[in-house]
Design goal:
- The chain contains eight helices and eleven strands.
- The chain is of the alpha+beta class.
- The strands form two sheets. A five-stranded mixed barrel has the order 2-3-4-6-5. Strands 7-8-9-11-10 form a five-stranded mixed barrel.
- 24% of the residues lie in helices and 32% in strands.
- The longest helix is centred in the N-terminal third of the chain and has 12 residues.
- The N terminus is likely disordered.
- The two termini are 38 Å apart.
- Helix 1 packs antiparallel against helix 2.
Length: 276
């Protein structure tokens, strides 16, 4: 069944601009349904969604109802095991948006205030009875009275969304986690490795990214979004797990620069349109 869906997608994207990217990311989205469930909700790259802000979800609800959106925002309040609110704090007076985790998998919110999360899901007006009937989450009715009929995002995927500098300055917090990271392409090292530039965090270094299949066409300075898992750069382990096909010169350079430093092993790389 998955193969048929992928074949159909191939025909649709073959002649479109960026088709190779869409096909690779479609595979990321479709294949996990046949694999072992992961412990946490993940954020597969989902081309075709509307990249927007929580402010727009409030102000332009009518245009976004029923559409799949991706927002990057700060969690404000955890209401229950499957719900929390987010808000664009940089916009004065921004309203909070309710996020309902409909992935069927737990998602652990960041412990630190100010840490962004990326959420992809469908915009709809929250109606408690409808959500409970459809998803059976066991929500407590009294906790959601103020959100009734207001816009909410029914999340299909979620991930922590740190900056490249946050990962390179304190990687221990993120090792083994599925992340959604945006940044500018700084240095293309090979057909399957590049760095994301860090300009915001003092003391932060550029982040090395390894794509496990040949990466999509990109250029220096391009803003991209990457989903993947953070791990330590140990050449022997990476070569054991992935067919990297690095020549000796490149391998020695990367080993000298990044051994035991963090590397983001990407499952998807796609153009970033999410507002900062």
């Amino acid at each position: 069944m998955v193969n048929n869906r992928l074949n159909n997608l191939t025909q649709k994207v073959r002649h479109s601009r960026g088709g190779a990217i869409a096909l690779a990311l479609a595979a990321v989205t479709l294949l996990p349904a046949c694999s072992t469930p992961q412990r946490e909700a993940t954020a597969p790259a989902t081309p075709g969604t509307v990249a927007t802000t929580t402010e727009n979800v409030v102000d332009k609800t009518a245009q976004l109802l029923g559409k799949t959106v991706t927002v990057r925002s700060k969690p404000i309040n955890k209401l229950g095991p499957s719900t929390f609110t987010v808000s664009d704090q940089k916009f004065f007076g921004s309203q909070t948006i309710l996020v309902v985790n409909a992935t069927g998998k737990p998602f652990v919110l960041p412990a630190e205030a100010g840490q962004d999360v990326q959420v992809t899901g469908t915009v709809r007006n929250f109606v408690f009875a409808d959500i409970e009937r459809e998803y059976k989450l066991g929500l407590e009715p009294n906790a959601y009275a103020e959100y009734e009929t207001k816009p909410a995002i029914i999340a299909q995927s979620m991930a922590l969304s740190p900056t490249p500098g946050e990962l390179t300055s304190n990687p221990q917090k993120y090792y083994g986690k599925t992340l959604a990271v945006s940044g500018e392409v700084e240095n293309i090292r090979s057909s399957n490795s590049f760095t994301l530039d860090e300009e915001k965090l003092i003391g932060g270094e550029d982040l090395l990214v390894i794509h496990t299949v040949p990466q999509p066409s990109m250029k220096q300075g391009e803003k991209v979004a990457v989903t993947g898992v953070l791990r330590q750069f140990v050449v022997a382990e990476l070569e054991r797990d992935y067919d990297l096909q690095w020549d000796l010169t490149l391998k020695q350079k990367l080993e000298a620069e990044y051994t035991n430093k963090p590397v983001l092993v990407a499952t998807g790389v796609y153009p970033s349109a999410i507002p900062e």
